[in-house]
Amino acid sequence: MSNDLKAAALKYHSEPVPGKIHVVSSKPCDNQQDLALAYTPGVAQPCLEIKDAPEKVWDYTVKGNLVAVVSDGTAVLGLGNIGPEAGLPVMEGKAVLFKRFADIDAVPLCISKVFKENGKTDPAKLIAVTECLEPSFGGINLEDIGAPACFEVEQTLKEKMNIPVFHDDQHGTAIISLAAILNATKLLGKKLEDCKFVVNGAGAAGISCSELYITAGAKRENFIMCDSKGVIHDGRSDLSREKQRFAVKTDKRTLADALVGADVFLGLSVGNCLTREMVKTMNPNPIIFAMANPTPEIFPTDAFEAGAAVVGTGRTDFPNQINNVLGFPGIFRGALDCRARNVNEEMKLAAAEALCEVAAMKVDAETMEELKKAYPADAANGMFDGENPLKLSYVIPKPFDPRVVPHVARKVAEAAMKTNMAKLTIEDLDAYEKSVRERIKANR
User: Fold this and answer.
1) What residues are paired with 106 via a beta bridge?
2) What is the per-residue pLDDT across 177-192, written as a single tens digit (0 to 9) for each?
3) Out of 6, 20, 27, 39, which one is annotated catalytic?
4) C-beta separation of 289 from 266 below 8 A
């Protein structure tokens, strides 16, 4: 990061007041009558209504549009275990994105005193704290919790709580990258079930991406996963339960070994670990998603020179950005609006399908104007033109595309209803999708 960007970031976070969020009342409180309604004595009436019928909490409180962003600060961005206080700016940022992209109110909750003596997460303690939040929140977004604790924390909370629990570091990246891979393979004439995958990085994101791809049709036997010690093979005795599912019988030991004859490289690791020479050993027209930030595993120019057909990164300054903001706002919008009890596999796949569809949709005039404002260079180069804009440099939509959140929300809600996960029924999904777009536009 340049010195200018560092200074600008610190100024952004400190002026005119510290932080990035504040609370705004949704009701007036300007006179004696308003005060009597907002607090005592008027507030007693909704309290009594909810006491007699707990489901009315959704009618009289903000719960139906409120998400808790919960973190213990043990795996913050690429910074590692920096602690809950240092992680708070990230969680505030997540709350900003929830509001900007989906008109969802979110509260950052950075939790301390949930650690073992070695500084790592004690899953039982974090679970105990988080499950107590259910009365106040309509959903839980787990964030920046280190592996392997994050797997136990999320799975246990999904079993204990009756509101959506979603660990974005796992499933957000998985959903968005799956959409990109599905569109890339379609363009290249490849089949997901035939593709050979090399996943570099066996943390929460790498494992969850792989599992979702398998759910979507990829074959587990076609995966080779690497961690900091090399290929995860069946001769290793240092593997967590999650890594053991990807232990393969092979004599390959290094990333370079693993990539020979591969179709897809998925990088969730460290910068500059993938070379042009390695890419050249892959199958023709390989797909490269190098998502380490800020320095990708390989820069797009090098990957293309080595023969890559599709390249994506986690950065905004290159095509095909795998950005989690394409996922979680719409996923929670749809889940909250149909009052889903959880986010199941069908809802995740539906979100990926929605992103696939948006990238291939003809861009309407209103959307084009917004895309021109947000991405003037891409628009000028014709990225969004045509009956079907899908192309190798555009296999995933852009975050500021106003169609993304409404379409993801629609597909997620529809999947929730089809799988009996929803408590409410949305009768007209076309009207619902339109209303979400209008709501977000009105509240920007």
Assistant:
1) 67
2) 999 999 999 999 999 9
3) 39
4) yes
Number of other residues whose CB lies within 10 A of the CB of residue 234: 10
Tell me the whole-structure pTM to 2 decimals.
Answer: 0.94
Question: Which one of 76-85, 289-298, 359-368 scores highest in mean pLDDT?
Answer: 359-368
Q: Is 236 exposed, middle or buried (0-12, 13-18, 19+ CB in 10 A)?
A: middle
> Cα(102)–Cα(346) distance, rounded to whole angstroms?
21
* Angle formed at CA 350 by CA 227 and CA 157, multiple of 5 degrees: 60
CB 326 within 8 A of CB 319: no
First to last CA, the chain: 29
Q: Is the pLDDT of residue 72 over 90?
A: yes
Give me the DSSP letters along 271-311. Answer: TT-S-HHHHHTSPSS-EEEE--SSS-SS-HHHHHHTT-SEE
Pair of tokens at residue 249: 């019988």
Answer yes or no: 12 catalytic: no
DSSP letter, residue 254: S
Q: Which of 94, 158, 190, 411 is catalytic?
A: 94
Here the tokens at position 353 are 């399908």
Query: Over 90: is that where the pLDDT of 147 sits?
Result: no
Active site residue 39: yes
350-368 tens-digit pLDDT: 999 999 999 999 999 999 9
